[in-house]
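Task 17 of the worksheet. Students: predict the tertiary structure of the chain below and write it out as structure tokens. Keep your answer in the requested format; marks are given for formatting as well as content.
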Amino acid sequence: MSFENGYKANNYIGDLIDNYNKDTSIFIKALQIFNSYKVQSSWPHNYKAMNNALSLLMGSSHETVLNFSRNYLYLKNNKNRVADSHQIEWPENIDARFINELEIYYNLVSQEVEQAALARIKPLKFAGLVRSQLPMSQTKMLKLIRMDGEGLEFEVDRHDVESIIRTLEIMIQDSCEINSEV
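Model answer:
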């Protein structure tokens, strides 16, 4: 994504910078809000409400803050590889901690935001597989997890695992049974 409004940070997150200058704990508060929405049973479907709350706190659209941060970090990390690379123009009075905290905030929430977007679009898509063992037991557990966080957990033995592997191998061979979407 290019910087449609130029390379001045104020054009994108000026209100956030002003709010940070008034309250340097703004990113801590933003993370608290983010995490409080994330642990609600309605996650990720409460994402819009969370975005609105974070936008009120930051003074800038939360989506704009995330997009700006992603683009800034891309430029910063690829300045030697990108032809015609520009640098972000920060305000003269910018607190160096602001830039650092913005990067940290983005790194902490960006993956969760991307997963939430995918979970809202395709909640039934496969998200993961977890194996575990019951404490003080030889019982093995397997958990299939969907993008919406719901899961199916069951006890398995060696025969069950071999059967699951055979079934998956058959699915791979019979490409008609597998969606070609990624």
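Marker's comment: The chain has a mean pLDDT of 88. The CA atoms of residues 116 and 178 lie 23 Å apart.
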